[in-house]
What we know:
Chain B is mainly alpha-helical. Chain B has helices at 35-41, 66-89, 121-129, 133-145, 152-165, 179-184, 197-204, 209-221, 225-237, 245-254, 257-269, 276-286, 292-308, 315-323, 338-366, 369-390, 402-413, 432-444, 447-458, 468-486, 490-500, 509-521, 527-539, 546-557, 565-586, 602-615, 618-629, 631-634, 649-661, 665-676, 681-694, 699-711; strands at 3-4, 10-12, 22-24, 29-30.
Amino acid sequence: MHRLSHISTRSRSTLADKLRSAVGGSDYGKSKQALAAGSIAAKDENGEDFRELYVMPKRKLRGQIQLEQNTGRAEIKTRSRFDLMDRLAERPPRSEEMDPEKHKWSDVWPAARTFAASVVPLPVRMGSRPNVEKRAPFKKEGNLELVKIPNFLHLTPVAIKQHCDAIKKFCTPFPPELIATPSLAATCLPISVQYSTYIHQGTNIRDIRSRVVTMIVDVESLKLTENAQEKFIRLAGKRYNKESKKLTIITDRCHTRKQNLDYAHYLLTVLYHEANKVEQWAELKERSDNLQVEFEGSETKTKLVDLIEKAKTAGLKPDESSITEFGEMWKSYRNSEETVDKTREYGRQMKKLLGISGNN
Amino acid sequence: MIGRIGLSRVLTRGLSSGEAAKLTIQPAIERSPTDLLNALSETVGPDTTAPHFAYIDDPITIPSTQSAKKTYFMAKEFGKRAARELATEWPTLFAFDRDQPRLPAFRPQHLADPFQVDPTEKSLLKMIKSREVQDSCVLYERLRSENVEVSEKVQLELFRLVAYYNSSNIPFSEWQEWAGIRNFGEESNGKWKTGGVADLLFETLQKTDETVSIMIAALCKFHDSQSVERAKELYKEHQTGKIHLEAFNGLIGASSFNAAKKLAAEMNSLKISPNISTFNALLFSAAKISKYEEKIKAFSEIIAEIRELDMEPALSCYYIIVKNLIDSKLLDKEKRGENEEQSYNKQLTLAVSWISEILNEIEGDIVFFKKRLKIRIFHIKIDFLQQNVISEPIFRSKFFKMYDFSHRFCQNQGISDENYKNLAPVTSQCHLFFVEAMGVLYRASNEKLAEQLRNIYESSQNSIKMPVFTVESTFYNRYLQLAIEQTPSLNRIQELYFSMVPRLVGVNNSLTSLVFRKISASSERNWPLLRRAIVDGITAGQLNGVLGEEMRKQLSNVQLHTLGTSEREQYTTLVQKLVAVWIEFSQFTEERMRRLQRKLSPSQISECALLLTRIGEQQKAYELLELLLDENASSGEEATVYPKGHARPWAMAELFEDALRKKDTYGAALCLEILSLTANRAKLEPLVNRMVEKCNVNQEQARILQGFVRLRPQ
Amino acid sequence: MLRYLQNVETHISHSYRQISTTSTLHKNRAAKTKSTSNRTQLLTYEMAQKPHHIGVRKSWLTWHSQNLEEFRQTQPLVVAQDEVVRRFIRGFFPQNLVVSGNEIVIKRRGNVLIVAGFLQYSRRLDIRRIYWMFGFAEEFLSILLKQPVKLELAFVESEEEVAYNYI
């Protein structure tokens, strides 16, 4: 605030004041009287100075000053500030000079930075108010809320485009065949390796989870014979997923990621070769060793064939051709979880096979 | 650079042959670890509104003047040093050891104390490697006093170190830890320390070629007359052996030009091929020639020799030339006489022509190769002719015919499509060329060449950079002043000023006064430039001198009706701020703050009052004017007004008119009274009459006024 | 003699701690500033919002990822570091704080710790001193925490600039 009120406007005898008094101010008489009354420094008959009786000091008492301060009527004498030169060094905010024609925003704010009110030329406000109509949200300068939040002024669309253009020269095109037919990934790239890298806020860059390697192999592409496939599946155990026909190997038993990756490859190779080996005792395999119950060679089939024969003689019209279909249904029924639908399907198929009509 | 590992291959995947589907996967493009970051950083240019990144980016902490820049930077640097010292002193208090991988940057350590370390050769070698000169000397003394064997090899290493650094610690410019102070340290090489460890070692070691060369070179590097004498003696004594190149360079640099030429001839006979430092030394000795024409001749000879030998003259060569192209006696304008003025002009023109050739040469380097070739051929032609006319070449190396030379030149360099070549620093003084050249161009007022020089400096091919806070600001200061002087258009001045101040150039008095001059001289109106100049003046502390007056004058010349609304607001705030600051300065009446006080002078008061009236603050203006009439204000302890001086008449006249317009009797009376301090009755009477007419004065008042005027002297 | 000892014992038995369970003292007084009669209590935006508005009307003062489930590597360490930084800044810039240094924002970007907030020009502003202190604080905290620490404190002329409301 540039107050000049410390320059007092006491009336003295300037020309202007004389004119003022000529208009007839109330002070006119007083000044004359004051002059006429004589000064306190008059001397008495002996030529000595008038000795004033000390009643009260000539300054304002403490109580008086406090009263004035509390009621706001105190005369505050502004003193010149000692640090004036340093305070004068304050420059106007940079945002005033920024011109979108001449400057690029990505030059001004190239990297992530806390909000600086003197740099950002936007007139933003932030903060809640009980009544927004009456008083606008808090201004930009001195607003801690703006400082707290992460701002993305360094990632304007223009800046992102510039960055992308700069990095493009290091990129190679994605295989167009994969874009055209995404399903090709399954056949052409049967092995997929997954691992994670972890970044931390702090002084420690190690994370123990980064050595975990997951390898997912499409078993079909291994082109194993049926026996080998069965052996493969037996060897793989829980790692084999029947629905998607994929083998998943998750390793973290070595210290580094590279070692784990090599180990996963090693496991795959070993499995493959082991699956292809035929042991002598494998010949001793019986029907009860199968992984899944087969329809061919089961008692159900023999009994069913008999049943069909009997049904033919009984006069019904069994549908012999649908026995393969029955066989598939029966296999899926036997080898998976029993549900209501499956049971109904069983019944339906049976009826169809035996030529019984649907009602009964 | 980017490379591709082979062409794109067709990859087949699948563990069995047969129906192998084909995917074209191109191999990855090779890139170094920092290539991506470099590519990204190239999208970012310099921010011309921001201060240097070393400063805190806040309005109060941005430095405006050169001295402020230096002090702020050093203050920050010293704060860091203090913290580092604390951390080295008390390492156990900073023992937070959870960082993986371990970061020695955050664990500062004291240097090894030569008295505590093991007295072995290994520790001595370690100290020599880390270039702790004085510590290694102390350790060496300690080893000798303890009679430990020190091998020849280690002694030679120590001798090399000690001779190079004159037995004292490495200079500021080579500090690695505190990069900031590097800029501000002293540069001069001291005198040779006789009787130091270097001399001792020289005596103890055998006198081989190498040791003698080292000694000679060191004596010439830290030269005073004695050491140069000694070097020459050593040289004469050691005629049997073959002195190394560096020693020759030293001797050449320390002797006069004719002696240097002889030395060079001897060098040639010993079949030692010169390098750029040799030519720098030659130029340096040529610069000592007092006669001007001979000096120029010597320079051209040396340049021709450089070109003949297929070498590029480095910028440091050009620096030495440019520095010495004008006689130093003629540089000071006041001390120049009549005929000296003529010779100065002649020398200046010659200097400018040299510089333009040099600039073309450099630009040719960094632009197209073939263009450069043409220029070089052109130059070789000239030098060829010159040499035939003037003298024989110093080095009797092979003298090619022009087309032969160019042919070989092409073969040596290899014509390619690669058109861009980088300007890289060759010696530590290459960057000074820019400053010197800009200085000469400033004297010659040649803006075109200055522009060219600046473009060369700022081009992306140039990697020779001047230290930011010291040398570069001189460079840009000269450029800016030159450009502003030569440009008539205020818009261009605004552009240049805004982009360079205070980022590159600190605000200084000559610059500001130049800008004000240009603004006054121009017929265009440019408020932003004026405002910026005044604001910069405030921040740089120029308020209280001659420039303060200039500011007031400029502000009073501004026509308020031509400004837009926001500009008018800016004008208002600016005037208010200025007046408040001036008043505050005048009020440092207390004892201990007395040295800061700048009392208001009457002219200052009148001008400020005028400005206040212009923005509409009548009351304050009158209050201010009343100070002129107040006796207490100009005398005594609490004085805030300078007792001498008068109010400006034109300001008072305008104030008077303004008061009359507003029919303000008292205001007019105030102005009148102030005018009466300097004017006589004749001037005052018409004013009084006008006052009586315009304002509603009653009888009494009119009488007072008439009486007042009648009392004034004639 | 014995009686004296008995007296001592009764004294000892009377000086034990007690928990007050009265309802009048049962209130939650955190972050609630009392209003004054002549509206001189300065409230910043932070102080004006009650604690249940955190995350709704006012944002957090520290930003780090260690509170999330998968990132909980060094959670207590980060809290301790924050406290160290806050105390250091509060103690090191005594004249220049705004609102007794409660409102300092700490952000972590990768390895770098960034301290943001507002400082006021004190009554005796000395810019060189400010720079010295900034250099010292940055270097000191960096060496202490073994990670780069940057101060992005902005300057405000006086506390009135950050005042949201006066109670």
